[in-house]
Design goal:
Elements lengths: L1 H5 L10 E7 L2 E6 L7 H12 L4 H21 L8 H13 L33 H19 L14 H8 L29 H9 L4 H13 L3 H5 L6 E2 L4 E5 L6 E5 L2 H14 L21 H15 L5 H13 L6 H8 L4 H5 L10 H9 L13 H8 L2
Antiparallel strand pairs: 1-2, 3-4, 4-5
Helix pairs in contact: 2-3, 2-5, 3-5, 8-10, 8-12
């Protein structure tokens, strides 16, 4: 069975589920096929929440641990008796299995893994990404580390680690480059991708596809402030500083209310949107839906706005591409230092901001065309030298 799972000949039954909890210390928990709560997972998730993790982190860990327990249930192995062979089976299964999230496509969508010729961005492939597999290994390792403190579970953590890598990274300054250390066994190679900034011409085309001032204001705020999608959608009227041209957002990492500058055009479109649709009530989100009953705009509603524009333009841009575009524009502005860009984008480390200093092929198009059409240099000789003599001596 292990070999069949690793070779993609068998699949793991989709039993159990992740359920939304009612308590703040356990916003999500895992149940088995009988609907019974899996207590070892709940204990680990409670400990995770005590460390001030966000509910979305708890949800992500719950799904990874559900996937792990589904495999153990399929193999007939108790969680406390898992070995490294079970972890290897998990990795092999994820490398060959189809990701069910990739199958939620609309008719006419691009094939999985294909590249959009207009944007240059590939579609998500059918399986699990290497980063997803590595995240699953990290979660499972943390699950057994937690229970190992109380003497539960196997004697050895079944997820292999690289002691050398942990030792090197533990004493590294964030200002120093990351040294090359071999990754632990079963860990996947994750390529470092260049930022997905939208070229100016395609950005103008995308902006023109917006159908109302609300969507124009949102898109302009995204590209001028660099705010994340969820941060901007949580904006309330009290968070808008019209005179200072600032908005206050709750940062994803620190969860602090921080000021972020935005362009005058963003505030102009926001004013036009509020003048037409009316001001929200105190404490209510600024962005509201326009179809049906008025309600706060969610991430999925804004994503649908972008999907409709992509369908008309034949592109595959995402909301996070706007943040990459803002960061690339700021990093390429010689009047802004890298430290200033880091402050605006609220990056924890300067090397994260430094990724946006790389050159892009689309920005070099004109230079490359000039390079390709430039005539080849002609060989010449100083006066007094016979070309035939040069050819006889040096060849030609």
């Amino acid at each position: 069975m292990r070999r069949a799972l690793m070779e993609g000949l068998r699949s793991v039954p989709s039993v159990g589920a992740v359920i939304t909890g009612q308590a703040a210390q356990l916003p999500f928990f895992v149940v088995d096929s009988d609907g019974e709560e899996v207590e070892p997972v709940s204990a680990c998730l409670r400990d995770l929440m005590l460390g001030d993790a966000s509910p979305l982190t708890c949800r992500s860990y719950a799904f990874d641990l559900l996937r792990w327990h589904r495999l153990l249930w399929c193999l007939g192995t108790g969680w406390e008796k898992a070995t490294e062979a079970d972890v290897a089976t998990l990795v092999g299964w994820l490398r060959t299995a189809r990701n069910p999230q990739r199958e939620r496509k609309r008719p006419g969508s691009a094939p999985a893994g294909s590249v959009n010729l207009k944007t240059g961005k590939p579609s998500l492939r059918t399986g699990y990404a290497p980063a997803t597999i590595n995240h699953a290994l990290t979660v499972v390792h943390g699950f057994y580390s937690f229970h190992g403190r109380f003497g539960d579970g196997p004697v050895m953590n079944p997820v292999p680690v690289s002691a050398q890598r942990r030792q090197v990274l533990a004493h590294r300054s964030p200002l120093e480059p990351v040294p090359f250390v071999r990754r632990a066994r079963l860990r996947q190679k994750v390529p470092r991708q260049a930022p997905r900034a939208v070229p100016d011409a395609l950005w103008d085309e995308l902006f023109a596809a917006m159908g109302c001032d609300r969507d124009r204001a949102l898109l302009e705020f995204y590209v001028s402030s660099g705010a994340r999608a969820s941060e901007l959608l949580g904006l309330i009227l009290e968070d808008v500083d019209w005179g200072g041209q600032l908005i206050y957002v709750v940062s994803k990492g620190t969860r602090l209310r921080q000021p972020v500058p935005a362009s005058p055009d963003a505030f102009r479109y926001l004013g036009r949107y509020l003048a037409a649709d009316g001001l929200p009530s105190p404490g209510e989100p600024v962005w509201r839906t326009r179809r049906g009953e008025s309600r706060p705009m969610t991430y999925w509603a804004m994503r649908r706005v972008l999907q409709r524009a992509n369908d008309r333009l034949g592109t595959n841009w995402t909301l996070h591409d706007a943040r990459h575009t803002a960061a690339t524009r700021m990093a390429g502005d010689e009047r802004l230092t890298l430290a200033e860009v880091q402050t605006i984008l609220r990056h924890a480390h300067l090397d994260t901001t430094g990724r946006y200093l790389t050159a892009r092929i689309e920005d070099m198009h004109d230079k490359l065309q000039e390079h390709y059409t430039r005539p080849r240099p002609q060989r010449s000789y100083p006066a007094g030298y016979d070309p035939d003599d040069i050819k006889a001596v040096f060849g030609g």
